[in-house]
């Protein structure tokens, strides 16, 4: 558990080991949460899925993630409630290791710390592995007694580094330049693998799909393994499209249609935020001046905004004297400050107003 971190390549390898033992399907549908080891937008995940696609010689693979905060929608997550039953009243303790190793462990506050330390002290890795073995056996025993619909849970061995490498290498026939450090599109967009991405893959916020083109003489993907009739009914997933009532259109109405992600709530929210930012920028331009570095030198004092409880910095367009500052401070005690207001100076002291070039508030925190 310590030295076998969850990542996309490990998940793909372990899934491969399970699926390869069955009578090799040609379609694979995955449903996961959006954690970093599953996040379908990440190139690392996409490459792991491509390696799985190639190794199993699939016709079509779709990986879909649940919306943020809704992993409960994923049926496999329900295993957690049963696993928790098995963990009721179980307390775990590992045995002690050598004094030196225990001393190293005292300094480690996270899995990452332990992994880093193990690089410096290889005996820590072996020591911990042996040390945790009895605990893992105990947990396996507990979990194997749990059931879902009268069927006992099965435990599978974690994939070895070698297994992970073998699955990864299935991609090298497509692109020998690929390395495990390739983690963003910029790394690979000029490499041969990008042809495969463009030819077979659809990458959306909530799903990633890989599909053969179906042509027998294709140089990028292999020939299909099912009948042409079945293959012809397959298409990349459509995006949700709103219907006139408050629902989305039925899947069957949009399948095979050319859709876009523009109705995705998070994309709309991001766009609205961007629009608001642009509008704000425009508004800032209309202000007499903006709080730039020059004026920041004259920053007079931090005051508390009464409406949104954030500290705002007041800037002055010209240097103000100590006396003027005192008058301003006195004035600030008498007013209820709101973001965006400015203060002007006249013979009677300071006056709060919105458009003036004597003193101004910058909306930066
Ligand atoms: Zn093809
Ligand atoms: Zn405010």
From TrEMBL:
Organism encoding this protein: Rhizophagus irregularis
Domain of life: Eukaryota
Protein name: Uncharacterized protein
